[in-house]
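Hi R.,

Here's the chain you asked about this morning:
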Amino acid sequence: MSTIPVEKNKEYIVEIIDNGYEGEGIAKIEGFTIFVPGALKKEKVKILIVKVNSTHAFAKILEILERHEARKESDCATYKRCGGCNLRHMRYEDTLVLKQEIVQNLVNKTLEKNIMVKETIGMEQPYEYRNKAQYPVGYKGNELVFGVYANRSHEIIPIEQCVIQKKVSVEIAKYVIAFMKENGIRAYDESTRQGLVRHIVIKVGVHSKEVMCVLVINGRGFPKQRQLVEGLTGTFKEIRTVVKNINMKNTNVIMGQENEVLYGEGYICDKLGEFEFKISPLSFYQINPLQTEKLYAKAIELAKLKQKDVVLDLYCGIGTIGIFVAEHVKKVYGVEIIRQAIEDAKENARRNKIENIEFVCGDVEVVLERLVQQEGIKPDVVFVDPPRRGLDDKTIENIRKVQPRTVVYISCNPATLVRDLEQLSDSYETMQIQPLDMFPFTSHVECCSVLYLKDSIQ
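And the predicted structure, written out as C-alpha cells:
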C-alpha cells in the first residue's frame, strides 16, 4: 500500500495544474491529487491541508505566490464563506472560458466522439440577475439576522447587500427583520424546532418589476400580520402580493405546500420574450430570465422545427419552453410532476392565447410511456429539461423506442448531461453543445445540446 505524501494541518507549496468541475484548483504532490478552492490554473500557492482521504486531499490557500492574470479582487465580503459565488475572484470573461473548459473536459472523459463545446454565452451585465432570493432567518449569537447559509452548513452569514440579487429583495428582508425585532417575533430554531419565521422569500419580475414577498413560518398565525403587510406595501410600492407559507415539518425543504394570501392575488407576472407568465410561490421559474430568453432562442434555432411537428416538452415546469415553441409547430405536449406548476402552465397558455398545447401532470417516465403506447402520439421533437440528476433510464429507453427526429437536451448539470448523451449515442448524433452562463460568478453552467437521429441526418 502506497504512502499518502501529505499530512493534515501541514503547509506545502504547489503549482495549480488545472481547474476542476466546480472551479476549484487542482494540484499534485507526488501524483497525489489536492483540491484547492479559489486557486486558478498556472498559479503557485502556499496551501494548508485541511482534509485527507485515501485518494485525494483538500487544502486552503495561505498565500498566492504567483498570480494568474485572470485573478481579481472580489467585490463581495462574504463570497468565500457563503459559496454562492465561488468564482468572484475571477474576471467575468475568464469565468466564461473556464465553464467552456469544464464542459469540454467532461465530454472528453465520457464520450467516445470528440464533440467541440461552443464558447459560453455570457451576460453583458452579470449583476443583480437573480429574480428570486431565499433568505434564512435565525440568530448570530443573540442577534436576529437574515442572510445566506455558509457553504456546506446551516450557519447563517448575515448580509447587507448581495451583488447578484435585486436590491429590493435585501431591503424587504431588512424591513421584515426590523418588524420582528420591534414586535418580539422569534426566528425558527432548527435544533429545537421552536420559533416562527424560517425564511423570507422574495420573487421579482425582471421586466414587470412586480414583487412577491413570501414569509415561510413554522405555524399558522403571524403576530400583527396586518400591520406588517400594511408596512411592507406602503414602503415598497412594487409589492403586488404577500403570502404566508406554512412549513411545520422537520425538513431542509424551504417551502411548505400550504399558502395563505395576505395581500394581492397570490402571484406576480413577468415576461419572457413576447410571452407573459404567472409566477406562484411554489412554481419553478428560471432564476435568470434574460439568459433564459437567449437559451430558448438557441434551442429553437438548433431544433430546426417544422410547422407540422409534434413536440413533447418533458419536465415542462410552468410551460415556458413549450409556449415559446408552440408557434413554430403543430402541437406541443408538456409533462411535469408538480401539480401547481401544471396549473400555472395551463393558465400561462390561456394568458398567451396558445391553443395548440396540452399539459399533463405526472412522472415523466410514466406519462411518456402512456402518451406513446396508449394514445399513439409520435413526437418529431422532444425537449427535455430535467433536474440535476438527469434523465432516468426509463425515459432514455422510451426516447430510443419513439425515435424522435431531434432531441433538445437543456441541462443544469453537465456531468449528467454527458452521461445521458453517451447512453443515447447508439441512436443519436450529438452535433454540438452550447454552454450558457445562467449563474454568473458561480461554477454552475447551463447547456443546450441537440441530438439528431442518426438515420435522419443528411
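DSSP finds ten helices and 22 strands in the chain.

Let me know if you need anything else.
M.
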